[in-house]
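Input record (one chain):
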Amino acid sequence: MRIHKSLASLLLIASAILAGCILTPVATTFTYRDIQGEFNQAVQADNQVAVQPFTGSVSTSLYEGVNEKLTDEYVASLDARLQPNAWLLRSVAEWRTGDFAEAENSAQKGLDHPNLSESSRDQVALLMIPALVSESFVGKQLRQAPEEISPDDYDETFAGDLNRASKALGMARNAMAEATPVDVQYYFEFQVWRLLQNWNIIIGKISGEAEQRNEIREAALQQLRTDGLIGEEDQSMAKAAGSVEERIPTSHPLNALMQVLSQQ
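The corresponding structure, as predicted from the sequence alone:
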């Protein structure tokens, strides 16, 4: 099974991050509402790629517009309560336009902001940005990878980003609490599921002795356990992915998306 890029982007932000952009304090300025609206349009165009692949440039242009407006100076001029959310919008927009270093820098500014609420939508989403960036690198390399890769290829091309994504998601899990909106928690679980699926596919491509492949798989599972993403009872990537899937209600759109991706 492969994770199709466009379908994996479907509901990418709408179920968690986008909802947070709508639910900002009433004190927002008209201009900031305009930027939020432009961001929402970018997300909708991004999701539309799933059914109309050639619309990608539209979302890129919209995200670039958000980046241009959310300058350091403009964010600083906003009500302090809005600034963490503004850093999140900018970080996501930078991530979606491939400005990965800038995305992580903006996310860190949001995380360092004194008005960022503990266990909030913004905090959890900001903590996930490094994982999303790493997943983007992994996805690109996976699409370009041959049917078989050597253990050295795995170490040099994939292992670093996979482990980094696991650690970032572990930090996001540690930040979640009762105050964290349920949709954010489901989005988090979806990203854990994607990581497990991609990691399993990549390990399955490793050539050579099965013993060496099994050692690599066990090391990956141990990393995921250390980061609190799977339990000791999850003895395989597939079992762990199944456990994660069960944590998202069958009625939720992200569960439906997982079912679609599982069939590819």
